[in-house]
Every structure is written in C-alpha cells, then in structure tokens.
Amino acid sequence: MSMSKTSKMLQYVNYRMRVTMQDGRQLVGKFMAFDRHMNLVLADAEEFRKAPSKKGQSEEERDLRRSLGFILIRGENVISLTVEGPPPPDDGRGKNASIAPVGPGTGRAAGRGIAAPAPGQAPAGLGGPARGVGGPTPGMMQPRPQVSAAPVQYGGPPGGRGMPPPGMPPPGMPPPGMMPPGMPPPGMPPPGMPPPGMGPGRGMPPPGGPPRMMPPPGMPPPR
Predict the structure, then answer these.
(1) What pTM value is reported for the model?
(2) Who's near 30: CB < 8 A, 6+ residues apart?
(3) Which of 19, 112, 153, 219 lies 20 to 30 Å (CA to CA) from residue 169?
C-alpha cells in the first residue's frame, strides 16, 4: 500500500464502516486499525447476509443479521470499504474538558485516626508487635531474679529402705499362697523319697530287714 493510500485510510479511523466480502456478506462496525495487507479490525461489528427463501414461500431473499463484536478481517477477502457513519461525538472528557477551579483548601494524607509519627520513628503498627497482640509484653521479656532455696528431702517408702510395700512378701520369699522354691506341694514326699505306699528305692533294704552289703568302691551295687 502506498503512502497516499495509508494517509487516506488514517482519516477514517473510528468511523463506522461497511466492508463487503467476496462471499457477499457485509460487515458493519467501528473501524479500529489496518495494515499494509488491508487486514482490518472492526469493533461492535454486525454481519448482514441474504439467505434464499424456503420452499413454498415467496421467492424473495431474506436478510439475516448477526452480532459479531470485535473481529479481524483478512485483507484478501475484502472487496470494498465504504463509510457508514461518522465517529461518535466526544463525551467531553478529552483535552477541552472543563477543569474545576482550585479551592482555598489544602490537601493532606487521610488516615484512620493514627497520629503522624515523629521524625526518625516508625509509624504506629510498624515498630513491632502491639502490646498484648502478636508477642509477649515488655514485662515478660525482662530477666527474673534467681531464687535459691534449701534442698527438699522427700520421705522414703514405709518401713525403711529396702522394705517391700504393705501386703507384699519380703525379698526372696514367694507370694502368699505359693510354696518356697524346691519344696514339694502339700501331700507330696520330699525330693528323693518314694511316694506314699511304695517301697524304698533301689538298693534300700525293706523296713525291718538287715542292711545290704555295700560293694567295694568302683563296683556297681548288687541287684
């Protein structure tokens, strides 16, 4: 695109333009931008096209309208570009907008009831945790005096050192109801003695009989 065409296109920026496409559609919208390939950008665009009539109805074509919004059009599909309407009027907020006169008051920083800090001090709330909130109070951080006292001697178990608690047997004695180690239960003979009603063991003479001869050392006893 030559420079003359570019300067001429710039005159129509923000105008409402009608773009005719190769397939017969027409797009109407606010002309926002373009490039050297004639790619166009439209805002608040609307599409208009003609559709064939249905069977049994009039032969006239129907006009269909569709809202597209912000779109980009390829330049190779554009046939013509015509002006549909001028740009919208300015709302008065531009360079020529009226400016209110300056009053006699002075501007100050608005706070929330917090006094301004003194020079060289941090504002309130930024100099550390507030008292009782976010940390211990200054009094709790002060060192406490050391208090010394005499050692306390606690009492030992009842009955003296080494004595069992009440209801427990002394050390080495079985609990109540149990026989000492090595003692047979009630009604049983001591270890090495035959049960009641049985004769003496092997090598022992019967009751009232003479003692048997003992073999010499190293010889087995007689059978």
Answers:
(1) 0.38
(2) 14, 15, 16, 17, 42, 43, 44, 45, 87
(3) 153
